[in-house]
Amino acid sequence: MDIGLDIFLQVLVWGLYAGCIYILLATGLNLIFGVMKVVNFAHGQLLMIGAYVTFSFFVLTGFNPYVLLAASIPILILIGVSIERLCFRPILGTGKLNEIFISIGLIYILENVAAMIWTDEWKVIQSPFESITVAVGDMKIPVDYLIIIVTTVIILVALYIFLKKSRLGLAVRATSQNRKAAMLVGINVERMDMLSFGIGAGLAGAAGTLWVVSGQVFNPYMGSVPAVKAFAIVIIGGLGSIPGAIIGGLLLGIAENFTVLTIGGAWKDAVAFLILIIVLIIKPTGLFGEEAE
Amino acid sequence: MKHTYVLLLIGLVLFGAFLAGCTQQQVSTTPSQALKIGVVASLTGPSSTTGKDVWQSAQLAADEINAKGGVYVKDLGKSVPIVLVQGDDESTREGGQKAVSKMITQDNVDMLVGGFSSAVVSAHQSIVAEHNVPYIITGASTPVITRRTDVNTSYMFHHAPTTDDSGSQTTLFIDNVIRPAINNKFGYPAERPLKLAVLYQDSPYGKGHLEAIKNTIANNSLKINLVSQETFKMGESDFRTALTSIKSADPDVVYVAAFLNEQIPIETQAMRDVDLKKIFIAIEPNDDPDFYKGVGKYGDYSIIQSRFSPYTVPKGPTETAYKKFVSDFDKKYGGFPGMMGVATYEGVYIGAKAVENAGTLNKTAVKNAIATLQMPQIVENMQGQTINFSQDFRESKFDLTMEQLVWDTAVNETRPKIVSPANLKESEFVLPDWYVPAKA
Predict the structure, then answer these.
(1) What is the pLDDT of residues B363-413, one digit of tens each?
(2) A183 FRET partner, CA 20 to 30 A, in A43, A263, A278, B73?
(3) Domain B31-161+319-387 CATH assignment equals 3.40.50.10860
(4) How many domains does chain A have?
(5) A215 to chain B: which residues are within 8 Å by CB?
(6) Quick one: three-class SS letters along A191-249?
(7) Is the dihedral of CA A264, A267, A271, A277 positive or negative?
(8) Confidence check on the interface: ipTM exceeds 0.90, yes or no
């Protein structure tokens, strides 16, 4: 098919939007892995809970769903902290298998709890800005997607400033780089675990809110597919690397959408793993990953 | 050390007891003689909403039959009650195999009713074939279910419209109703072909629709040009790029073969994000209250092909039975039973009637009785007003309706009006003012 400039740009916007959701999810996952060296397979379920938290507050208060980021992020931080304290801390260091099975178990627990609270029927809400578009050349871009992209950038900048400029952020990075050395200089690494899990969950909550605002449907079982993509991004970008998660998320979001346009939707999910294989062949540690200790 | 082993053993026993308690078993204790029907339903997993409808509808039918004294079996010289056995396919192929295998080999069911998606049913058909158990399949829209040759399907009967049936009737509607309406309204020549885009799920269901569309166009020499064919994976939620691609092909109509969780974002994203001002066509599994709620104003003027709607009742001989079934279901369980629900409700009645006709619980005799059944339609409109199964592929044939969604300010949602077939029509098909046809 002929791909004109307008179609190219339109698909690029859809790719950037998808990339934003992936970035938030993968960044959180990477932060948790970087600090705790734990792979949280239930990370997609945190996105799902973020979506339901937004939905519930929207139904109860009628607030603008973007404002509800102020509810979904803190609530998910609390849920993340609780999960870390109750599930991961007791088994940390007892073997990777324990961590894996805890996080797999959490998938089913969180899905069933969500189904119990909100039922398993599909839900959807619409943004108050749904009918507003912005003209870019010949294109009309719904303003929601621009807000989502800008919101993601703001969240990432805030995370960057926290990690680079604050003492707490410095301690998180130190724990991520060398846990033993961090302990030796007096950093409470368990507190850093709790903090990183909380922030990671909060980012998943933000992804859930943005998912809902864009008019996507959701039910308790919707978290697995985005989570699989986030895992692929983490590996593509490099384990523990936040810039890697950002570049990987954008790369995947855009690649997926151009795959749909050129080859067809049936190949959309495969492209993540195609990129993953190519990246691993060229650079086994991922785009921004460092050699394992 | 000894204590550790004892504790471990106690733990294992308790865990086993817990697991046994978690597994849903038969509904009630089985009387010594009963017609045992295994209900294959997705009671857990992503399709559990539909699965619940299937199970509850089967229960409603069994309760009604039992309240009237049960099923008369001549060989036994008495009526026996129906006992339903729950088979949760867990919305997966493996779950279906496990459930069907258990119901046949451990619960010794006399027949099976139900089955949801084509993929799940296909996976357990070989088990049914191996044990020669009559199976009335009330889901699984692919015609392959009773036409495949790698498995003996002679004990399987398909009581749900196939993708061939619904694809063909919908394509004929596009040619007979929508194409003339566009050509009239925009002053195009009557012979101008309609440009059709198809967005379909990459599954037997979606591919079956695409195939049916192509065959119907070819076999009837319809003036319809397929200008775009886009596909997506089951469960997809982001259709913006596929819809952008469809928009660039400039169709008149977009035919979508998708499930409810896909249909809602497709129509929403098309209208809201891609500005694709076309007539959208949805297929029957979507005619559910959740669809109307989810799609909101974006569904206005779209078409839905249906056979059992929550909001419109076809006038005619089944009207009373329809209303009674919906009302009884709502009173007993709350909510709307859905298409899979009504087909399973009928499936239990079909099974009971076949046993009565056979006069025995012998599986081969029951299978033969189903094959030769001539039963008045129950709730859904059947072709010839009779439930029977075709000689070649053992499929029952439904009368399908085409409905157009119209915004209803009283409920702040769209509501359907039947626009085809002519004998059931409630209003004429309308092209909205915002509609933009393909360039001539």
Answers:
(1) 999 999 999 999 999 999 999 999 999 999 999 999 999 999 999 999 999
(2) A43
(3) no
(4) 1
(5) 265, 268-269, 272-273
(6) HHHHHHHHHHHHHHHHHHHHHHHCCCCECCCCCHHHHHHHHHHHHHHCCCCHHHHHHHH
(7) negative
(8) no
